[in-house]
Task: structure prediction
Amino acid sequence: MSKTWRPATQLVHGGTLRSQYGEMSEAIYLTQGFVYDTSEAAEARFKGETEGFIYARYGSPTNDMFEKRMCGLEGAEDARATASGMAAVTAAILCQLKAGDHIVAARALFGSCRWVVETLAPKYGIECTLVDGRNLENWEKAIQKNTKVFFLESPTNPTLEIVDIAGVAKLANQIGAKVVVDNVFATPLFQKPLELGAHIVVYSATKHIDGQGRCLGGVVLSDKKWIDENLHDYFRHTGPAMSPFNAWTLLKGIETLPLRVAQQTKNASKIADFLAEQKQVARVIYPGRADHPQADIIAKQMTGGSTLVCFELKGGKEAAFKLQNALDIVTISNNLGDTRSLITHPATTTHKNLTDEARTELGISPGTVRLSAGIEDTDDLIEDFAKALGSIAS
Ligand SMILES: Cc1ncc(COP(=O)(O)O)c(C=O)c1O
Result:
């Protein structure tokens, strides 16, 4: 792996580990364990005196390739591949905290992430304060003597709010806390949290990294010291490891990440502009548009728009359902980052467990719809929306 490789090269060649057979495509090492020539060799491996794998829950060659490729892309020193994005989020947060510690998190989080900090962590004596993450003052005001972790996603799901990552990192550094960023919506191509000062980055690799609706996966990335001191033992002993088969699938997926994300972003941006002109649409939120309420922070910390578009229909839930049902190409699904364009109604799916009040706080109304743009032809997608919007009385 070369440090000078640009992302497109890194994503095809980074981390490749060839066996004695010289296979072109990465091998899948579907093995639970590893064998040793002698008892002394086993002892040395367990003592950490020799390099090598011990047990697939700890690490294995295909996963190692995936982790190294992700490290190269992210500019991280080390990583651990997990079975899902939620396994990555949970591990990244819990591995570094103990009873009596305090988390400050943005309230605009993916539902399961919010459950981890709001419901799960307090069961183990870890307090959590949720804030409107758009305003740095709110982060500062929530700091307590025992604050150890700041947790955020940016842009957020589904209303594409932005958190100033460098600003939060500055506050965290003043008190020796760690910033964990869920970078799923931005993708590793458009936002580099570690360069902005965050300490830990997590992904649901299920989204853009696979990007073809095949398997679940996640990854936690950070510096070697943090991983050695916090994640290493947690990961070995609680067992969130990714299957080597999924690591292989994700290695294939990630090769085409820049191509897919470029086409998805082009489609998302064109559809956002089209929707903004339609009489049935009350508002469009898209990080690549000048009318995004936080366009200044976007310009500071992101190098691309988004593959996602959030918009609100004037006709509320009825209009949202009619639109979704009338689309032919765009498919109803709560997944995102896929080659297929996917649409979802957050109030009745991804965010249905929130109270009406919490949804209102997050800007999710009955008419809010989230689109994840795929790689289809842009004109076909716009024609699909034009036709489906025609089925809604304005
Ligand atoms: C922002 C965000 N974080 C984490 C996750 C969880 O990922 P997974 O479904 O791979 O566990 C999701 C899934 O939708 C997500 O959107």
Notes: The radius of gyration is 22 Å. The pocket of pyridoxal-5'-phosphate is lined by residues 84-86, 89, 110, 112-113, 153, 157, 182, 184, 204, 206, 216, 218 (CB under 6 Å). The chain has two domains: 67-242, 257-393.
